[in-house]
């Protein structure tokens, strides 16, 4: 796991040597591996948003860490299975939600 939080230059403060840097036009510079990880950040945030909104991960009614872990594992497994199934039938746009897939 790479830290993908970019640094913004402040007056008279040097930046860490191997850090992501952002200029005034929001262009990202730094090591190639970290820049690629930074651009994948949006897709991860989209996945978390869908999990929270469509699968009710933002308001759990479960008690106990083991029950929560099991529920989250089932949610992400079902999201992955839905994505695989939609790509296999040749309709990747249906991977967004189960309701969209069943239409």
Descriptive notes:
By secondary structure, this protein is mainly alpha-helical. It has 2 domains: 1-54, no CATH class; 60-103. The chain has helices at residues 32-54, 65-88, 98-102; strands at 7-8, 21-22, 28-29. The two termini are 37 Å apart. The model has no long low-confidence stretch (mean pLDDT 81).
Give me some keywords for this one.
2 domains; 6% strand; 50% helix; three-stranded mixed β-sheet; 103 residues; single chain; 3 helices; mainly alpha
Question: What characterizes the major β-sheet?
Answer: 3 strands, mixed
Order of helices and strands: EEEHHH
The mean pLDDT is 81
How many strand units? 3
Beta-strand fraction estimate: 5-15%
N-to-C terminal Cα separation, in Å?
A: 37 Å
Rg, rounded, reads 19 Å
Uncertain segments: none
Please give the share of residues in helix.
40-55%
Summed up, the helix count is 3
Overall tally of structural domains: 2
Q: Which term fits the overall shape?
A: elongated
Structural class: mainly alpha
- Give me the side-by-side strand order of the main sheet: 1-2-3
Q: Secondary-structure blueprint of this entry?
A:
Layout: E1 7-8, E2 21-22, E3 28-29, H1 32-54, H2 65-88, H3 98-102
Parallel strand pairs: 1-2
Antiparallel strand pairs: 2-3
Structure described in brief:
The protein is mainly α and 103 residues long. It has two domains: 1-54, no CATH class; 60-103. The chain has three helices and three strands; from the N terminus they run βββααα.
């Amino acid at each position: 796991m790479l830290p993908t939080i970019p640094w913004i230059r402040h007056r008279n403060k040097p930046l860490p040597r191997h850090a992501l840097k952002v200029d005034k036009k929001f262009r990202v510079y730094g090591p190639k591996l970290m820049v690629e990880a930074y651009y994948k950040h949006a897709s991860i945030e989209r996945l978390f948003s869908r999990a929270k909104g469509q699968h009710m991960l933002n308001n759990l009614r479960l008690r106990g860490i083991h029950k929560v872990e099991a529920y989250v594992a089932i949610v992400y497994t079902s999201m992955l299975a839905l994505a695989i199934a939609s790509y296999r039938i040749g309709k990747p746009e249906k991977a967004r939600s189960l309701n969209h897939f069943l239409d």
